[in-house]
Structures are given as C-alpha cells and as structure tokens.
C-alpha cells in the first residue's frame, strides 16, 4: 500500500515499510525503513535538530541539509556527506521536490537493464532543478523488499556529462556493522565484518563485472544481532557490472548508504532530451536477525528476480564432464559416461568446454561455434539423439563473450575484440573480451548460440565468462547493456532452456545475471569442505535454488583433500546437486552411495531448492536446515575430528513445539578401506592395509554409518537432539559416526500430525 498525507509518503505492507517526507524547502527527508508503521507516526521518526550544530550549511534561509537524514542529496547545497550524483563541473546537480506519481505495478526500465518483476506498487518522486533537469526516484514495494532506482533526464538543450549516478541514497540512524563478501577465483564469499564508522566503508568492483573480489550484496546488522534476533538489513544491486556501495557514519550518528554503478572510469554523455537510468537497488529488513533477513531476501529473489518460467520449478540433477574429461573426449567416451550418469540417477548430461572449433586447450578456438567433428562426428544433434535414447537431457557450455586470438573469429574480426589503446595485447586465460557494445558482435553471438541450442535440442546452457577487464573504462556500462540484450534475445524466446551462469566460478554471482539465469555456478573450487563455506556464506544473500554445487573427485584436484563421498554429497544437497568427475572408476560401493544420494535429493529436492532455509547453531562445524510442509532436513558438517570427542547435539529450528516428530539419519555407506589395517581387529583373518583383501572389501563391503532414530516433540528437538557418538578408536558400532575428518550427517525430521 502507498499512503500520502501532508507531504509524507509511506510504502507499507505486512512485512516492511519505508517512509519519507518533503521538507518545507523541497528536500526529501528520510524517516523510516523497517517495521510496518502508520503514516501518522511521522513525528516519532523526524529528527529534531533544534538550532543546529553551529556551522550551518545550505542555501540562505533554508534548513540544514548538512544534518538531515535525506533520500537524495545535491552537491553544492551544504551537505558535506557523499553525494549520489555528479555532473559536468559547471552544472550543479541540485534538485527540489516537484510532484509524484503512483503505479499499482513495477515501472519498466527502458534502457534494457533487468529488473525485479511480479506483484508490486511503485511511487515515483519527481524532482527538478532550475537548470532544466529532472530526477525521478522510483520506490517499488514488494512483499519482502523495497527497491529503489533513479532516472536523470536532461531537458536542457546541450549534452551533459554524467560522471556519477547512484541508484539510491538513504540516511538511517542507529549503530550498525557492515558485512561484505570478498574473495578471488576459487576463494569466493569471504565475509568481512566491521563497525560502520566515520571513515566509511566502500564495497566496490572495478573489474568490469560484479566480481568475486567484492560481491555487490552486503549486510548491515545491529552489533548484537544473532541468527534469530536483532535488526538486520540486506542490500544488493540488480546489476552485473562495476558496482559501488558506501556506508559512512556522520557526526550526528546518521549512516549514509549509497548504492549504484561504480563511478570509477564512469562517464556518460547524455544528449538533450535523453535520460540515464540506473540499476535497481534492493533492500530487505528484518528484526529476526540474519536468518530473518536472508529468508526475506531468498523469497524476494525466488519470486521477483528468477525468470518466471523457473519460479518453483525443480532443477535437474546433472552430470558435467569438465572435471572428468577437460578437453579430452570423444563421443563414445561421453556416451559411456552418460550411461553411468543415467544409472546413478542423473537427469541431464552437460558437455562443457572443448566441443567446438580447435578448442583442444584454453589457448585456441574460443569464438568458433562450429562443432569439432573429430570429437563429435555426429554433431550436436547426433550426440543429443544418443543422450535422448538413454533418457538424458542435453546441456551445453558456451563462453560467448570472449575470443582466443588463435581463432577464426579473431582472424576475421580482430576489431571485435576489446584491446588496450597502447596496442599491447593483454590476455586473461588466453582470451580477449568481445565488444558487446557493437551490434554486429551481439548479432554474431545471438545467431551462433541460438543455432547451437536449436540444433542440439539443448535444454540447459552453461554461460561462462572467464575474462575480466579493467580496460573497459567508460564503456563498461555499455558492455553490460549489450550483454543483457544478448541474453534477452537468446533466452527470451526459449524460456524453458535452463541457464546457469558462470564466470570462472562465482565471479559474477549477482542479481543482474539471476534475472536471466535461475542458477549460478558457485565456485570453481569444488573441494566439498571449502565450497561448504562458500555455500554457507552465499546463503546470507542468495537462495539455495541459485547455487550450483557439484560433487567432485577425491583426493581433490585443488586441495588434495580426501573428503568422504557421503560428505561430498551432503554438502551439494544444500545447493543444486550435480556430479563432476570421471565416473569410470566408481566402485560398486561408491555407485550405491551415489544412487542413494541422488534418490534422497530427488525425494527432498523441492525442500532443498525452495524450502525455507535456516542456519543452525552448532558447537563446531556448520549446520543448516531446509524445511516446509511438516518436514525438515538438517545437515551437520564437521572438519577435523578430535580424539575423545564430547557429546554433541543437533539444534533444528522452526518445528512446531507441540507436535511429535520422527528423526531419521540419511543412510550413508562407509568404505571399508578407510579402516586399512584396523580391519584386522574385526576380521577373523590377518590382512595387509593395502592388500587385496582390504581393497576388495572396500569395493564391495557396505558399512552403515551413524544410524540415528528418535521420536520426540518439536520442543524437545529444538532444545537439542543428542547425536550418536563419533568414532573413538574403541571398535565399530553401526550407530557411530565413523567417517573421521570432514564427516557429516543429514537428518530428516518429519511429523504426521497436521
Ligand atoms: C571455467 C569454468 C569451469 C569450466 C571451465 C572450462 O573455468 O568456471 O567450470 O567450465 O571454464 O574451460
């Protein structure tokens, strides 16, 4: 609902509200963002600055914008805090309130930026400046979020250079800490938390893309907020290019939050009569801690960001050939992998890099989307037919935005690649970016990717991008608009093709990409233990339905860690399950374990992908839960074991305290080779640790691990359900948790009571 009374504006629903007013001098004063309140509550929020702090600022005779909490601020009007907008030096970007418009829907962005969709109401505030310019602030109210964006219109008769243009600005009061998510390739989503002080904190990307260096999403939380209590706000930007956010506290205790496109190298020449539209900034609020905030964010993303066709639509369990084959495959090798993948329960076979042109390594062929007939003599359609006969859907990898200099495309169109002005060729993963601001480049990509999708009856596309570039400079935003145009043209007419975005893993994990691709490859770091932390941190800002997380080989190629297969599966459940290693060497026990994993995931897939997600208390390690409709599935993930471990408990949440639940651990199988020579203590014969008996036992002998059953009320379980003992070196008991380092268990909690 939007309410307007005496120059006070309130956007409000049962979860959230946003309030501001127009001051007597035409400024916009921020009043409130948070719990649902009434329009007459204005007086409770408006700051009282008495006679001010001595040194007043602002145009003569006006109030003190320097001290006001504001919705937008102008350079040169006495506000010394960060300004959301900068134009040519000689034109002050100073605006005053003029009028408003109301809409009972979202208002379309015209320049091609993606935006949130679905049920919403929008308020447009129109501000003008004496120098024939207008500013339009759009506030859109969704069920669990408010979005903001700004549009600048040049109504003068000359061109204006926009040097900085934020999507939103807001001054809130209170004591807050900021959490940002930083990292690198195979090290995404490392949280950094700091008090918001007077020096401010900038969360910005300048690589041309949203980047793994600094994810655009961030959180503000009260210092004593917990997973379940306290005020926590989540922020994000629906944009995949260079982003910028800054939070800074003023002397008066106001925190200014600005969000938008990074002003670094930004420059946009706006002709007379033209407008510049900024990406949509997203804000959610909760008084129920980090958990409440992320639940609101997840709901917003699942319902208003993910393409409509994929709302609540279950995602397939896939097999991807990359880590198993890399560039070295033939059609018959792929088909034998596909047969095994089908036997395990996979639904989709994804052919990754290496299928086109002379792409036999990452040094050549990128850009040439003609099938490599040596590897695939029957083309895409021949492979798809064989996969189809096996009952598998077909998925295909592309990296359409980049080109290898050693490719036919580059030889024909060297001018299509973005090169630095000084003539020095700077490569990243042996690639250059194609200039997506050029219509002919966009046409080439649209034609080639569409042709391959149709030829191979492809139902899933992995859209990779491995070349970040600071050389894009002022054209970075044009590039991103070009990218959105290409994605819209390819996937708009093919909504049922599932798109998974990837950028050397999670280098472009953002809401802009999620508007086209319902899921994103979380990280090239497929070590289960490392990626568990990445998934856990992603869960603060993104729902599990968006997080691609595959089971990979052990020992792992990046860490040499030998993580138990059960844990590798259990971790991937809390994301989108897939398998990505050579299946040829699976033992019968491993085959059984994986079949169990896939069957289990399919049974609870809707919960894992769309259920309500909670991070649980855990004495050590990580614990997470998904739930819905009388069923909860909880996971507990450990790192290193300790000798003589203490008692442990699982702390599920969100159960009905009065109902009786049954808890059952997921059946997982243990490989007997884990025990090496220790087996001699339980076998009647003497065995060598690496001898044939142990090896054979490892292939065929199945040991149940950690069976736990318990019937109790929700109240009892939420107080902490006691867990089976862990292995203590004193013998085998089928109820014990036996997996050693990096062990984990999954517990299914169900009630029959309605
Ligand atoms: C990137 C991706 C990987 C894989 C390779 C293929 O690194 O992140 O998943 O697709 O490219 O070259």
Per-chain topology:
Elements: E1 2-5, E2 8-12, E3 17-22, E4 28-34, H1 42-45, E5 85-87, E6 96-103, E7 121-129, E8 133-141, E9 146-154, E10 160-173, E11 177-182, E12 190-195, E13 201-204, E14 214-221, E15 232-237, E16 243-249, E17 254-261, E18 268-270, E19 275-277, E20 281-286, H2 289-304, E21 318-320, H3 322-325, H4 331-344, E22 348-351, H5 379-390, E23 393-398, E24 402-403, H6 408-412, E25 432-433, H7 439-455, E26 460-463, H8 476-491, E27 498-501, H9 511-514, E28 519-521, H10 528-538, E29 547-551, H11 565-573, E30 576-579, H12 588-603, H13 605-610, E31 612-616, E32 622-628, E33 631-637, E34 649-650, E35 660-665, E36 668-671, H14 692-700, E37 702-705, E38 709-713, H15 714-718, E39 721-722, E40 744-750
Parallel strand pairs: 21-22, 21-30, 22-23, 23-26, 26-27, 27-28, 28-29, 29-30
Antiparallel strand pairs: 1-2, 2-3, 3-4, 5-10, 6-7, 7-8, 8-9, 9-19, 9-20, 10-17, 10-18, 11-12, 11-14, 13-16, 14-15, 15-20, 16-17, 24-25, 31-32, 32-33, 33-40, 34-39, 35-38, 35-40, 36-37
Helix pairs in contact: 4-5, 7-8, 10-11, 11-12
Bound molecules: alpha-D-galactopyranose.
């Amino acid at each position: 609902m939007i309410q307007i009374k005496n120059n006070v504006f309130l956007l409000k629903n049962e979860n959230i509200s946003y309030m501001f007013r127009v001051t007597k001098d035409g400024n916009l004063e921020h009043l409130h963002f948070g719990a649902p309140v009434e329009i007459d509550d204005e007086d409770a929020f408006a700051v009282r600055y008495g006679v001010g702090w001595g040194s007043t600022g602002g145009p003569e005779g006006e109030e003190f914008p320097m001290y006001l909490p504001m919705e937008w601020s102008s350079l040169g009007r006495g506000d010394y805090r960060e300004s959301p907008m900068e134009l040519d030096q000689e034109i002050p970007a100073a605006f005053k309130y003029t009028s408003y418009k109301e809409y009972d829907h979202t208002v379309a962005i015209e320049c091609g930026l993606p935006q949130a969709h679905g049920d919403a109401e929008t308020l447009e505030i129109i501000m003008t400046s004496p120098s024939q310019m207008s500013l339009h602030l759009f506030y859109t109210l969704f069920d669990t979020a408010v979005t903001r964006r700004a549009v600048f219109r040049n109504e003068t008769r000359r061109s204006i250079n926009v040097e900085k243009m934020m999507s939103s600005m807001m001054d809130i009061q209170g004591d807050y800490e900021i959490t940002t998510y930083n990292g690198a390739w195979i090290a995404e989503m490392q949280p950094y938390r700091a008090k918001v002080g007077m020096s401010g904190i900038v969360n910005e990307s300048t690589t041309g893309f949203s980047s793994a260096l600094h994810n655009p999403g961030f959180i503000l939380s009260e210092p004593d907020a917990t997973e379940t209590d306290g005020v926590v706000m989540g922020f994000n930007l629906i944009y995949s290019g260079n982003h910028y956010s800054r939070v800074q506290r003023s002397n008066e205790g106001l925190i200014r939050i600005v969000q938008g496109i990074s002003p670094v190298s930004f420059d946009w020449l706006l002709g007379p009569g033209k407008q510049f539209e900024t990406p949509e900034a997203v804000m959610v609020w909760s008084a129920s801690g980090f958990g409440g905030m992320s639940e609101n964010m997840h709901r917003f993303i699942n319902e208003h960001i993910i393409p409509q066709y994929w709302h609540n639509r279950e995602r397939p369990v896939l097999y991807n050939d990359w880590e198993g084959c890399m560039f070295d495959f033939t059609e018959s090798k792929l088909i034998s992998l596909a047969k095994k993948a089908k036997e395990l329960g996979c639904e989709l076979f994804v052919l990754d890099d290496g299928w086109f042109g002379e792409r036999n390594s990452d040094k050549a062929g990128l850009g040439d989307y003609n099938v490599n007939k040596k590897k695939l003599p029957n083309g895409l359609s021949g492979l798809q037919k064989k996969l189809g006969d096996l009952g598998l859907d077909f998925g295909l990898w592309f990296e359409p935005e980049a080109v290898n200099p050693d490719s036919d495309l580059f030889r024909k169109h060297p001018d299509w690649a973005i090169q630095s002005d000084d003539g020095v060729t700077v490569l990243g993963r042996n690639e250059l970016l194609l200039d997506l601001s050029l219509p002919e480049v966009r046409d080439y990509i649209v034609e080639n990717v569409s042709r391959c999708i149709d030829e191979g009856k492809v139902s899933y596309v992995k859209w990779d991008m491995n070349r970040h570039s600071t050389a894009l400079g002022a054209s970075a935003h044009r590039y991103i608009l070009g990218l959105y145009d290409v994605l819209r043209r390819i996937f708009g007419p093919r909504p049922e093709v599932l798109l998974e975005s990837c950028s050397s893993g999670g280098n472009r994990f953002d809401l802009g990409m999620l508007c086209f691709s319902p899921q994103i490859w979380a990280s090239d770091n497929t070590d289960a233990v490392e990626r568990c932390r990445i998934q856990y941190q992603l869960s603060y800002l993104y729902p599990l339905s968006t997080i691609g997380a595959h089971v990979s080989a052990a020992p792992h190629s990046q860490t040499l860690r030998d993580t138990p297969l059960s844990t590798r599966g259990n971790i991937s459940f809390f994301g989108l399950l897939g398998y990505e290693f050579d299946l040829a060497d699976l033992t019968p026990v491993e085959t059984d374990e994986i079949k169990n994993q896939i069957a289990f995931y399919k049974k609870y897939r809707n919960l894992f992908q769309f259920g309500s997600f909670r991070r649980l208390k855990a004495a050590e390690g990580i614990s997470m839960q998904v739930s819905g409709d009388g069923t909860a599935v909880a996971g507990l993930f450990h790192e290193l074991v300790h000798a003589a471990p203490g008692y442990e408990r699982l702390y599920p949440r969100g159960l009905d305290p009065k109902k009786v639940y049954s808890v059952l651990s997921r059946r997982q199988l243990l490989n007997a080779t884990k025990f090496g020579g220790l087996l001699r203590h339980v076998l009647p014969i003497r065995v060598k640790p690496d001898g044939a008996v142990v090896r054979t036992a490892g292939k065929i002998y199945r040991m149940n691990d950690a069976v736990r059953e318990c019937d109790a009320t929700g109240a009892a379980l939420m107080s902490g359900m006691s867990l089976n003992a862990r292995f203590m070196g004193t013998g085998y008991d089928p109820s014990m948790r036996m997996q050693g380092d990096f062990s984990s268990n999954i517990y299914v909690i169900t009630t029959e009571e309605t």
